[in-house]
Design goal:
The protein is an all-alpha fold and about 290 residues long. Helices cover about 75% and strands about 0% of the residues.
Length: about 290
């Protein structure tokens, strides 16, 4: 009884810590969401009343996000970049998983570490390094061979390559973890029954990896969509949403329309995360 009484304050303290931790995480998101519906020109108290103008209004000074062409253009570019990065990252990540789980080659551990390194390099350093390499290569080709390589100039291609360089590490780790749990005897049984390796891969191995591939693709999409540090150094005239929002804040300060954009992104990210969880849970139950 005495031991139980001594444990009670610790238990309550632990519960308070957990509650405070989640409040700390959720408070900024809640604040951003609330001010998206405030009928005020500034995202601050006092509360002026509920409004949807910051989403749907078509005129200044309360131009809504769905009528703000620059913000919509930024969302479009972010979606295109994120879709390309996610597709490339999942494809290469799946290949890396087979390489490091099934492959046997010299210095395998060394190359595995090399694959992980981009994940721990600061995004600023990664962006600057890629920009310097691409620019120097483009300048050399132009000066030496009179060839203009526009792909190596700041723009969507460099942004995709810059994000792909570290996001692929994430997808590789997620898919590798799934592949390590695969029972290879299933493939051997199919091969013994006369199936080709391509058919075994398509009908047995890849369906087993599908939940991890979907989850990795969603994570890659979200990480790419919100990336700022690396993108800032590689972006051209086609500014994705993060750069557009940063430029808006730098020029005119924070406005409720940015809170409206944040609210939409919070809802979208949450739904994608839920889809990822449901896909993996459904496969686990089966």
């Amino acid at each position: 009884m005495l031991a139980q009484n001594k444990a009670t304050p610790f238990l309550w303290g632990y519960r308070l810590y957990i509650a405070a931790f989640f409040v700390f995480l959720a408070a900024p998101l809640v604040a951003a969401s609330v001010f998206a519906f405030n009928d005020s020109l500034f995202p601050a108290l006092p509360w002026q009343g509920f409004t949807l103008d910051w989403f749907f209004n078509d005129s200044e000074p309360k131009l809504g996000m769905f009528h703000d062409r620059r913000l919509l253009r930024g969302i479009y570019y972010s979606f295109v970049i994120a879709a390309l990065v996610a597709t490339l990252a999942v494809t290469v990540g799946t290949t890396n998983a087979f390489l490091f789980v099934r492959g046997q080659f010299p210095a395998k551990n060394f190359f595995y570490i090399v694959m992980i390194v981009p994940l721990v390099i600061p995004g600023v350093i990664l962006g600057i390094s890629i920009l310097v390499l691409a620019s120097n290569t483009a300048n050399f080709m132009e000066n030496r061979y009179d060839m203009e390589l526009e792909l190596l100039r700041p723009g969507i291609f460099l942004v995709v390559m810059g994000q792909f360089s570290f996001i692929t590490t994430i997808t590789s780790l997620v898919i590798t973890a799934r592949l390590k749990k695969f029972d290879e005897s299933m493939e051997e049984a199919a091969l013994n029954l006369g199936a080709s390796r391509a058919r075994v891969l398509w009908t047995i191995t890849l369906p087993y990896l599908r939940p991890a591939m979907i989850a990795a693709g969603i994570v890659a999409f979200l990480v790419s969509f919100e990336n700022f540090n690396t993108t800032l150094f590689l972006v051209g005239s086609e500014s994705p949403l993060t750069i557009t929002m940063y430029d808006r804040v730098a020029k005119v300060g924070s406005t409720p329309v940015l809170n409206a954009v944040s609210f939409v992104l919070i809802i979208g990210s949450g739904l994608l995360a839920l889809v990822s969880i449901l896909v993996q849970r459904d496969k686990t139950v089966r």
